[in-house]
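Exercise 3.2. Students should predict the tertiary structure of the chain below and write it as structure tokens, then compare their answer with the key that follows.

Predict this chain's 3D structure.
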Amino acid sequence: MENIIKSVHFLLLFFALIFSCSQARSIIARPQPLSTFKINTTQNVRSCSFSVSIRTSCSSPRYTRDQISLSFGDAYGNQVYAPRLDNPRERTFERCSVDTFEIYGPCTYPICYLYLYRSGYDGWKPERVDVYGYNIKAVSFYYNVFIPSDVWYGFNYCRRRASASA
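Answer key:
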């Protein structure tokens, strides 16, 4: 009888441990607002070319007239800035679409941060942003959330945080 009680106690403890450790945690980072983000306009030298593809979610509004800007860079302070990507006449950022832009800026080491800025009233939900550049590994940033208005919103995977917040 004592062995049965010990076995039941062990099983209860085992299941309690399993259930307490099985809380699901997301391993995919979600984009974050960054109110202290500063654009380094003096550094936007046109020495390297980047191809940026932005996939707009199928749950985004049908189109947006909002102003969309983009900035990305590396852990060493090299920053690429595109002040206006939107163009409603050319139907950019329509629902379920992919828009590709050729952006010029300083050459970078591996890109580790990317932020989007939206200003307007229509709303916009990008699904993902892919950045390709010469001599750097392509990188993807997964949003799939509505971008809040009038704040830089995105990701910073840099080990040295100074690049995006300096």
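Discussion points: The beta strands are 32-34, 48-56, 67-73, 79-82, 98-105, 113-119, 126-133, 136-142, 152-156. The helical segments are 2-21, 162-165.
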